[in-house]
Amino acid sequence: MLAIFHKAFAHPPEELNSPASRDGSRKPKLPEETLREFLSAHPANTFSMSFGTAAALAYVSPDRSYPTHQRLFGGFDDIYCLFMGSLNNLCILNRQYGLSKGSNEAILVIEAYRTLRDRGPYPADQGSDGGVKLFWGVAADGSVVISDDLGVIKAGCAKSFAPFPTGCMFHSDGGLMSFEHPMNKMKAMPRIDSEGVMCGANFKVDVYSRINSMPRVGSEVNWSNWEDYH
């Protein structure tokens, strides 16, 4: 799976960008090059979708040469989800969110996001075990690159990458935030690789730092500009 959010649309945390990416022998690539290489590596079973100059999503359908995690793509209300893996409690969550029995994990995640966005009465997250690992990094032009393939991230982002924090979402305006603790800020912790070089940063919930307020909004408006309120 590969997701690219261009610099004009989303801004990665400064701590994710390592100085070693500029000074080392291996330089980060432009996002277009990373996407092209990802698609060319799996020409027969790759799906991709671009959103103008804002973003691009791509994934490889499972086969014998690629991991067998389920991959789903869904869209609703101008929200799009690329889901990999499965939920053991999907039926229970579908009932909780008022979805039909046939709703898959991608649709559920979209509804969970809409619930969190609109501050509905249901919890947007029911626990995260990180069953499918994700990584994210910074491309040569400052774009955000997210993938489950560590090799893709290393090739495209050089030293400016890290594991994507479990139980979190990255919002184009609000930045990185926790589903489980949306009122707490995220804290960056520098990562040092086996060569002793700074390699991006890990992020965790800062239990001592809270957002002062979060605006309540209706179903027609999201709270993407909530950072203006603290």
From TrEMBL:
Protein name: Stem-specific protein TSJT1
Provenance organism: Vitis vinifera
Domain DUF3700, first and last residues per copy: 2-205
SMART domains recorded: DUF3700
InterPro entries, per the entry: DUF3700 (IPR024286), TSJT1-like (IPR044828)
